[in-house]
Design brief:
314 residues; 4-stranded parallel β-sheet; 2 domains; Rossmann fold; 14 strands; 13 helices
Length: 314
């Protein structure tokens, strides 16, 4: 907060109006097939990438995971502190201890002396502007509310780091795996599914979780309640929706306190998912990831919703 208070007046004095704090940030675009390339940054300025960046900093877990598949770890100088948490990270074993860890703070990112930084829409806007003001090229990933957006982010980042072929291969593999699941669950009855996190958080229409449930052959009952992409749902409404399957995120070595707590509450025992033992823990890295690793979430959910289809090996 002290940093924010200090930089807001400074931002307001910058002569370039695009640095104004309330100006919207947009996703990055890369133009050109070969280096030098043009990067159109989150405030709409063009800059030249003369060569593939050698010092890349990621301020978002999705960036950590995408970079793990796109470039050698030696080119990544800073990743988020989330990356080491195997419960939520699919890149927990990729980056060596000497790679800096960050919490998305500007001083941490600049200390790594990056020539490219990866951010998302939920990174602090002032931090993004300070990176830009400091001369760092910034890739701002698209809002990852769909697999199409994830694919776009992978392609943009791949183009920026000089790995467009690898990015294309990642997207193709992701699409192929989704299509395999879609074919296997086609024409199967769609169970009524609710993603429910302690505190009443859920995901409705317009969210990646909603798309994952649909692709896995389920119906997201949060849609029936008119809940948007990310919202909260009362326990009373969750129970009234009578889901056949409850999905909870596993955060502690695969153990989800939510599963035990819900099963112990008398009001929840009338829910089909609880009564029939269909409350399932899904590893956070698969359920909440917004990188190419999200496809694992579709596969995991499909197996939980339609165990009879996946009982036999391919």
């Amino acid at each position: 907060m002290l940093l924010l208070a200090a930089v807001l007046p400074w931002l307001a004095t910058w002569p370039d109006a695009r640095f104004v704090v309330d100006a919207p940030l947009v996703e990055t675009r890369i133009e050109g097939d070969d280096f030098p390339k043009r990067l159109v940054d989150p405030i709409g300025r063009e800059r030249v990438l003369a060569a593939p960046p050698r010092r890349i900093a990621s301020a978002v877990l999705a960036g950590d995971e995408m970079l793990a598949a796109l470039v050698p770890p030696q080119r990544v100088v800073s990743v988020t502190f989330y990356v080491d948490n195997a419960s939520i990270s699919a890149a927990a074993d990729v980056y060596p201890p000497e790679t800096r860890r960050n919490r998305g703070r500007i001083e941490e990112l600049l200390a790594a002396r990056p020539d490219l930084a990866v951010v998302a829409n939920y990174n602090d806007a002032v931090t993004v502007r300070l990176l830009l003001r400091s001369g760092v090229a910034v890739v701002r990933l698209p809002d990852a509310e769909s697999f199409a957006a994830i694919a776009a982010g992978i392609r943009t980042l791949g183009a920026a780091v000089g790995a467009p072929e690898r990015a294309g291969a990642l997207v193709a593999e992701m699409d192929a795996r989704i299509e395999r699941v879609r074919r296997r669950v086609a024409d199967r009855p769609a169970p009524r599914v609710l993603y429910y996190a302690l505190g009443g958080f859920t995901a409705g229409e317009g969210s990646l979780v909603d798309e994952m449930v649909r692709l896995a052959g389920g119906h997201n009952v949060a849609r029936d309640a008119g809940i948007g992409a990310h919202g909260r749902i009362s326990a009373e409404l969750a129970i009234a929706l009578q889901p056949d399957v409850l999905l909870v995120s596993g955060w502690q070595d695969g153990r989800a306190p939510a599963a035990a707590l819900l099963a112990q509450q008398p009001a929840w025992r009338q829910v089909p998912a609880i009564r029939d033992g269909r409350i399932h823990v899904v590893r956070g890295a698969w359920l909440t990831s917004v990188s190419q690793e999200s496809v694992r979430g579709v596969e995991e959910i499909a197996e939980l919703l339609h165990p009879e289809v996946f009982a036999a090996n391919d």
